[in-house]
């Protein structure tokens, strides 16, 4: 039997600081070649249980700059460049880093800031941060699914049953279309 690699842990209040530390390293390496560096994913939502991996979203102006400079700069910080998914997501560049024991600690995703997937990640994060009931429902789904999968891609795909409709609600919320229930 294969060892289980995926775990969900309770929210760790150190995650935002770990992100800020890594953001400083990335900014030092990348400088003005990037537009934004954002903490996203479950570790960016206060109180939300998560896989203990800091997800970082870097917004860039164009991928040509990434190809010329950013890949080497990020791998120079100890990240592994993973081009495996670029056929499916040609506008994303993905990196991962593990600790000395081989335990994954960070993911970096680079997207052009004007790409819909960049925006999708930000609005989903912001929605969960401001809708604790949705965050709690998402946590329940994640805790159930983590018991069923030991592959990150299969786990992520299974979560889409919750994530996709939640993203629709998040976009409606941002557009001001989700009216709160009237108090009686």
Question: Can you tell me about this structure?
Answer:
The model has no long low-confidence stretch (mean pLDDT 92). The longest helix is centred in the C-terminal third of the chain and has 23 residues, at 152-174. The chain is an alpha+beta fold. It is built from five helices and five strands, in the order αββαβββααα. The protein has one domain: 2-Layer Sandwich (Beta Polymerase, domain 2). It has helices spanning 15-30, 63-75, 116-130, 132-146, 152-174; strands spanning 34-40, 54-60, 80-81, 93-98, 104-112. A hairpin with a 5-residue loop joins strand 4 (93-98) and strand 5. A five-stranded mixed β-sheet has the order 1-2-5-4-3, with helices on both faces.
Salient structural properties:
184 residues, alpha+beta, Beta Polymerase, domain 2, 5 helices, 45% helix, 17% strand
- Portion in beta strands: 15-25%
Roughly what percent helix? 40-55%
How many distinct folded domains? 1
What is the overall silhouette? globular
Can you tell me the residue ranges where pLDDT is under 50 for at least 5 consecutive residues? none
CATH topology: Beta Polymerase, domain 2
Say which CATH homologous superfamily is assigned.
Beta Polymerase, domain 2
The structural class is alpha+beta
Known CATH architecture? 2-Layer Sandwich
Rounded to an integer, what's the Rg over CA atoms? 17 Å
Assembly classification: single chain
Order of helices and strands: HEEHEEEHHH
Distance between the termini: 56 Å
Mean pLDDT: 92
């Amino acid at each position: 039997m294969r060892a289980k690699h995926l775990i969900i842990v309770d929210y760790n209040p150190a995650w935002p600081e770990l992100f800020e530390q890594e953001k400083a390293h990335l900014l030092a390496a990348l400088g003005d070649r990037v537009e934004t560096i954002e903490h996203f994913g479950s570790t960016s939502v206060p109180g939300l249980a998560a896989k203990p991996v800091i997800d970082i979203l870097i917004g860039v102006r164009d991928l040509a700059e990434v190809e010329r400079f950013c890949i080497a700069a990020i791998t120079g910080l100890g990240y592994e460049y993973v081009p495996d998914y670029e056929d499916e997501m040609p506008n994303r560049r993905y990196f991962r880093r593990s600790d000395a024991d081989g335990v994954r600690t960070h993911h970096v995703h680079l997207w052009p800031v004007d790409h819909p997937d960049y925006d999708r990640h930000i609005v989903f994060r912001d929605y969960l941060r401001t809708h604790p009931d949705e965050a709690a429902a998402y946590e329940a789904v994640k805790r159930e699914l983590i018991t069923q999968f030991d592959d990150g891609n299969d786990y992520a795909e299974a979560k889409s049953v919750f994530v996709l409709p939640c993203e629709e609600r998040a976009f409606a919320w941002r557009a001001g279309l989700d009216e709160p229930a009237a108090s009686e």
